[in-house]
Amino acid sequence: MADLLLINASNFPANPIYPYAFVQLSALARRQGITVSCLDLLGLPQPRYEDAISRAIIDTSPSLIGFHVRQADSVSQRDYAPAPGNPKSDFFPLDDTRFAVEIARRVSSAPLIGGGFGFTVHASRTFEHLGLDYGCAGDGDPLFTYFENLIAGRDLHAVPNLIWYNEDTVASNHRCFYGPNPEREYDATSIQSLERFYGTETLYGTNQPSIAVELARGCPYACYFCTEPTVKGRTVRYRDLDVVFGEIGFLNSFGLNNIWLVCSELNIGNEELAVKLAEKFIAFNSKRTSKVRWRAYHLPKWITRSTLDLLYRSGFRGGWNDYPSFDDENLRKTRVPYRSKDAVQHLANTIAVCSNIHEGRKRAFSMFLGNAFSSPSVLKNSLDVFDQCGFQKHFLEASVGGATRAFEGVSIGSGIPGSDLPITYRRDSSHSSTMNIICPTYFFAPPLLEAAGSEEALLSFFHYAERCFLSRAYEFEDNWADILLTALRSPWSHGLWRSFLESNSAASLWNLLADTVPGTTGFLGPECGDLVLAERLAEENSTLGRHLSTPLRLICTELGRQAIELDTALLASHEVAEVIGLLLQDESPYACFVALSKRFPSNQSVLDFLLETSTDRTGAASWAVQVGIKAKGVSLRPEFAAVLGISLQESAPLP
Ligand code: B12
Ligand code: SF4
Questions:
Q1: Each residue of 593-647: pLDDT tens digit?
Q2: Of 139, 201, 241, 368, which is least packed with CB atoms within 10 Å of its CB?
Q3: Ligand 1 centre and the CA of 403: distance in Å?
Q4: Residues 147 and 221 in one domain
Q5: Global pTM?
Q6: Residue nearest atom 8 of ligand 2, based on CA coordinates
Q7: Same domain, yes or no, for 292 and 199?
């Protein structure tokens, strides 16, 4: 039996987490002597909802049924449009919640209420869309103080944050913002629920999921894309740190050591709270054998290098910064409270501080380059800065936000470019310009769309930037052993290969690879052992991927450089030598793209240009040039150049 049954159909399968709202609402209920039972529908297809919901209702006979809507979509347009390199997601939490509401309506006569962050963003519309009896805009506290009123449908005017039908019209009561819970929220029951959700092996394993603990709520800023100030309030309400650490100590006593401190931002206006927390975590961890690691959203400002050092020493492991750009004018328009030098400094500091931390996590970077105020010059300036700072080589993957999620009164309205042309995506794969803002609805920056010529071209460019300019992801995409094999099977390589190994540090790399693949020996010459080894490596490349790609790519590039040296006719031309230099020397993929885009509209035109000068008939030069193109991930398209404002100039000098 339970007074309240809470149901969540909004968990994002690509990034599943135990709903913290279950913990928070259960704790509020406890204070009023109200019992709560929770059901998360993650992983269940709709046809199985009926069974799960009916069973929960029969088991608990709730007086009220609540639906938690954490978010109405993933806030990432690429999950809804079939973007290159990205499968379409089937994450439509409002459709699933509505389906769950219909079932609950059939099975139970209890009133139905909705709430949560995603619900609150468009509270009245979502309330109507879901077919509920009540809605709660914002903090859930009044639900419990006025629990009896809600069940009896009495004095509903008095219930803060409530949305309800007053006769036939939707009424929204006055909004109240509450602070975080002054008492501990987690109890033994929440631990059992966490165990059921994750399974004990995952929950207590080496890669523990993060457990949410609230630190503060609210944000005074007004970034044009963010709903936090309207949902959580513009005043920051902090939680007593002793209560926060009481919570962390309780979780730690069960062996739960990966904490996500929930707040809008950790360092609003200054770094005081961050420093205080770091000191408390250091003291806390010094008395524990199993150390706590923690994360929190934070701004790339108001954290000095020494504070960042302190934070990471205390177990801090970052949060999420989605820089819109590294262009001051653009940052000003997006209304984020920092500028390019803050972001660059913070990123450089984070890279430096994290360089010694190897905890099995992929280094990932994300940027909101497709923000509404973006343009070709914003993209160019930002990528120039990123490249000049040498950040690319530090990240194994990156993601670019290509479009803005439309939120009424926040990211949509006058002065926000593109917000008058939103696209709503639907589960049945249709999308239309008839906006339904509560469903996944996005818009693009008009100057970017115009420059790219189409949505497909713009998203393809971003995909390229993610793999090659903002991270090293592209380095691991090709089977470099296969590429090497092509050379080793060709007679032109034999002499080169032997002298290459004898005279080069690559020999040690090659022997290292031989050690990786049992039963093979390196350094025998391409006629015998090396060919066998390369063949085995080509087979293994898909499984050993990252480990093998880097040394093999280095070997291929070095061999490529030597193969080109043989082609004196090719190198006689100054221009040709420069293009080859870009491809096979240390230039970054971005610098290479920018320089080549000024001269060539496609990869094929680079090849044609180089090879028409070549006198080589063995295939060595052609192999080397193709290695260079792959080694820099080059992908030349006129639309890509246009997105960065680069125009083709036949006589452009190369850098
Ligand atoms: C920490 C965090 C993360 C962490 C979570 C770590 C963890 N272990 O929990 C990580 C990084 C993993 C994460 C992931 C994601 N997140 Co997040 N996340 C947050 C953050 C900062 C806190 C979330 C939280 O737990 N809040 C506390 C909960 C309980 O608040 P709440 O839902 O509002 O609930 C309160 C009330 O609304 C009410 N209430 C809630 N439910 C109900 C139900 C009823 C019936 C009633 C009456 C009341 C009620 O009571 C609660 C207490 O007052 C929020 C921003 C924020 N400040 O909340 C973003 C936020 C919710 N996340 C967001 C997004 C988009 C995501 C992802 C989809 C990102 C992605 N594409 O992967 C995923 C989704 C994960 C999932 N499976 O659902 C967005 C949602 C945007 C929006 N406008 O809807 C937010 C707002 C961030 C932002 N500013 O854009 N997130
Ligand atoms: S500072 Fe952070 S939480 Fe505040 S409005 Fe901007 S993005 Fe949202």
A1: 999 999 999 999 999 998 888 888 888 988 999 999 999 999 999 999 999 999 9
A2: 201
A3: 20
A4: no
A5: 0.94
A6: 226
A7: yes
